[in-house]
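Example noted here:
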Amino acid sequence: MTIDQQGAPERRRLLGLQYLRAVAATGVVAFHATEAAGVPWRTGAHGIDLFFVLSGFLMIAITDGGARPWSFFKDRFLRIAPLYWIATGGRIVAGMVGVLPGIALDLNRLVASFSFIPYGEINARRIVLPILPVGWTLNIEMFFYTVFALILFLPRCRMLALTVILCGLVIIGFVLHPVGLAAGWTHVLMLEFVAGGWLGMAWVRPQWRRRIAIGLAVALGLWLVIPTGRFGVAATLLVAAVLVLEARGLIPEWRPLLLLGDASYSIYLWQLFPLLLVFRLGMHLHVQPAILAAVTILVALAGGIAAYLLLERPLLTLLRRRRTRRGITVPAGP
């Protein structure tokens, strides 16, 4: 153990959670690549569920009684927004010059996309796609960060308040089937932040683990009634299993997988560009779908790692953000 700048003991990084971020990012890329090739592997899409459970856990794990709402939100905003804005701008330029398909732009969509506000048509999954399509998850993530920052004003019972607020929003979504802004902010995916948050409570409050485990077991059982609930349940159980291994010191360090975890945000953000370019080239050369999907996945992962090393990491240094606080990796979002 070492001592951080505030004098608090610094814990080792949670390696397993970094590995899960790598798995989640790779899964999402694999889904998009196989879908484009006509042989969709739909399980990979649920890397999103894993990202959200991890975010819920880590927000509890990295905050304490002295956490300040504005400082927390500013840290999260600076971590997420600049790189997302650059990627969104890149998507606009790529469409204008014909490198990627053009996109319809208007002032409202521009402002909404850069402000993390769901705006536009809602699809069958109650998702509103911004200019950079993968940004729909960041709209949900930033809303979660906003709610989390607000509950930091409370002196106690923060996780209970977060549970009531997010579960209440999901219930409103089921009952009213809202559109526009409310569709994104009442999405059932909000439950995954709640599940991750309670795992975080079990991690930082060992004396509560038995009670939290019983409560989570009941909640997860009820969650299975929801058609898409099994994916959130599976993600929650996977994170819980990895945390058990972490607590017992059974997870070794493997640098290649750690690099993928570190680069997961860049991989997620920039995947569209190599995916579309490689897919176009592969179709022109009449490459078989399975081979095309495999090559596209590898190129997208390599491109994301390059973006992390050449853009994201220097940008974080410029903004003087740290990758970890008290030894726990702060998530980049999905």
Observations:
- The chain is about 65% helix and 0% strand.
